[in-house]
Design brief:
Blueprint lengths: L18 H12 L4 E4 L6 H14 L3 E6 L6 H14 L4 H11 L4 E6 L5 E6 L7 H14 L6 E6 L12 H11 L3 E6 L3 H9 L10 E4 L5 H13 L7 H10 L4 H15 L8 H24 L3 H10 L9 H6 L5 H13 L3 E4 L2 E4 L2 H9 L1
Parallel strand pairs: 1-6, 1-7, 2-5, 5-6
Antiparallel strand pairs: 3-4, 8-9
Bound molecules: adenosine-5'-triphosphate and magnesium ion.
Length: 371
């Protein structure tokens, strides 16, 4: 089995470091405060939150994880969120009773699933899922909580609430949060700029609603140690300098470090005992070859100004709105440039950290440099 995993939540001994970040999350929620967690894509937010959930569950909290990604309408939110709330209940009958006492117009159903376990679902019949019903549902966590069993709700990809356009979801949730005594929330997601807007703009319902934290790169020394330890189990050596090089090729982004390391392990296992810089390059080329059709299509889809910007961002990403930058790279007007940046950030293709803009996927960077 490949010792490196990517593209999923990592747990157990596939997860390293983030101890301080984890205890910050745990302490904030223990203290009865709400928190918003920012980090660029693929930095390990969801995995970190699952780590914190593990610790909080051990302390007796009812932890409800909810991902907004699959939500596409008020109905789907209702269905999925009520299911997520029910999943943490040991007594579904009791949960159904509480549900009915809060949401009178919708019938709860308990059926036995294929595994013989009872499952909760809802029957809308002719009920319209409007603000009243959504507001009732948002009040449910407080009803299943008590002083000894506080509920913590973890809203992943929270910026996607915008998809519930016809419902003032932010306003409804904010007012519920203010009333709830035994429930706290952690909000996070991969579109940092949208989340920041939600929590930092005075015009928005969530302005100042939560304390804020960010997570950054994993510390290099820990990553080197992790790579060495995992590879050594198959008698593969990697020295510090080579491990450092692997990390730099992956732009130090946790997801891409694991992806490249997985390729390196695959390349070396059973016949190579020492990883070299050439092997790292060869493996990076392999990853690139596998993804190049996808990158080609992604690039082709962009407008001319976005294409031009992508090509210049892989050269330099600082002060991109300055007159010198625009002139040096022969870029379009500042207005067009701003629109291109906004669009590429929204699509998750580029990211901004501090004052620098960069292409998020280091293998796409390689592709752009080559073509
Ligand atoms: N602490 C960690 N230890 C080891 N690997 C990690 C860690 N954090 C992240 N990774 C790697 O990064 C990948 C992405 O992690 P995760 O899905 O938690 O990130 P995310 O920030 O939620 O991503 P997205 O922006 O796509 O939602 C993992 O599959 C794993 O390969
Ligand atoms: Mg995630």
């Amino acid at each position: 089995m490949n010792p490196f995993t990517y593209g999923t939540i990592v747990k157990g001994d596939n997860f390293y470091d983030r101890t301080d970040e984890c205890s910050r999350i745990v302490q904030t929620l223990l203290g009865g405060n709400n928190l918003v967690l920012y980090a660029p894509r693929r930095f390990g937010k969801t995995s970190l939150v699952f780590k914190a959930i593990e610790q909080l569950e051990n302390q007796g909290f009812i932890c409800v994880y909810f991902d907004f990604m699959p939500v596409f309408s008020a109905e789907s939110f209702f269905r999925l969120y009520s299911k997520a709330l029910s999943a943490k209940q040991s007594n579904l009958q009791k949960f159904a009773q509480i549900f009915t006492s809060v949401i009178k117009s919708i019938r709860p159903i308990i059926k036995f699933g294929q595994d013989g376990m009872p499952e909760f679902s809802v029957d809308f019949a002719n009920t319209v899922i409007d603000e009243t019903v959504i507001s009732q549902l948002l009040g449910l966590p407080e009803k299943i909580a008590d002083e000894n069993h506080r509920v913590l709700v973890f809203f992943d990809e929270f910026q996607e609430v915008e998809k519930l356009g016809n419902i003032n979801f932010e306003g409804l949730l904010r007012s519920k949060i203010q009333q709830q005594q035994n429930v706290n929330y952690l909000f996070f997601g991969s579109k940092t700029h949208l989340l920041q807007e939600m929590f930092n703009s005075k015009k928005r319902a969530f302005y100042n609603a939560a304390s804020q934290m960010t997570i950054s790169y994993l510390p290099e020394n820990e990553t080197i140690e992790y790579l060495q330890q995992k590879l050594s189990k198959d008698n593969i050596n990697i020295d510090n300098a080579t491990a450092k090089y692997l990390i730099s090729v992956a732009a130090n982004i946790p997801h891409y470090i694991q992806l490249l390391a997985a390729e390196v392990w695959q390349y070396a296992v059973n016949h190579i005992d020492t990883i070299t810089l050439e092997i790292i390059n060869e493996c990076a080329e392999r990853v690139l070859a596998l993804k190049s059709d996808f990158y080609m299509e992604l690039f082709d889809r962009q407008s001319a100004s976005k294409k031009q910007l992508l090509q210049t961002l892989v050269i330099e990403g600082k002060n991109i709105f300055s007159a010198t930058y625009i002139k040096r790279h022969n870029l379009p007007s500042i207005g067009t440039l701003q629109r291109a940046v906004k669009g590429l950030i929204n699509d998750g293709i580029i990211e901004k950290i501090n004052d620098s803009y960069f292409v998020a996927d280091p293998f796409f960077v390689m592709f752009l440099k080559k073509n």
